[in-house]
């Protein structure tokens, strides 16, 4: 197994290199780079109109010497291949660079935004699994019953509603009309002045609507996956044998079926856990004004803040590769019959 782990770790290097190379090449052809963004903001600050996004229009009326100084400020005075090699050297030391426009280290920005993403991810992950898995088991045991049909209909209807649309509806109804929940942020403005008990209540009060909007899609997938996994195991021969030995339905379900049926679910824990942090939260963060990693990545792309774009991409890709490796290792932990060789 250790040889397999070593091979997978070594394979991460060309994968990371390919992802960064492809993104870096695409960036070179995107109009409106950091220099143009700087010039546009400078012209807007003087009361001018920052029209257009091309480098040629953005540089009109700028002294050539000044333009070269701005390019040197962002490192664009060097050829593209030199900048790419320099970036790889920084990333090899886990130095993600410094933001062009926020004057902060990219790693520092990521750490600042992590609490929001962790809040959304943890609640989404735990609520989805703690509710969906028991529901899926109940649906499998009562397959074909009225309970199964009604819950399937409700789950599929919930899955068909995009999280962003549900978030808008929740904001309008419960945040606007009824005013039961706040419209933005994770905490109130006077959060620091509250007691610990009041802080917990305030935090839960703010997180209810965005978590409800995020949970629905993953909840439906997990519930149906659990049901189908249990139904597949219930039809197998070892279940018939266990029942023939006189075991009760509860013993058959929880001692025999449960462990085997949870293999595809448990092995997906790492991916689902990490995915809840970094995937699908951009629209929710924007809608509820939550300053997390999704919003940071989006704003960095819009502003052409390339160190943040490439730094967060490197961070997300590395986390994703490690998570995939952990998911594969979980197969052996859950099912000893699986061999890497």
Automatic annotation (TrEMBL):
It is a multi-pass membrane protein. The keyword Acyltransferase does not apply. The chain crosses the membrane at residues 9-30, 116-137, 149-174, 203-226, 261-288, 308-334. Keywords: Cell membrane, Membrane, Transmembrane, Transmembrane helix, Transport. It is found in: Cell membrane. Belongs to the binding-protein-dependent transport system permease family. This is Binding-protein-dependent transport systems inner membrane component.
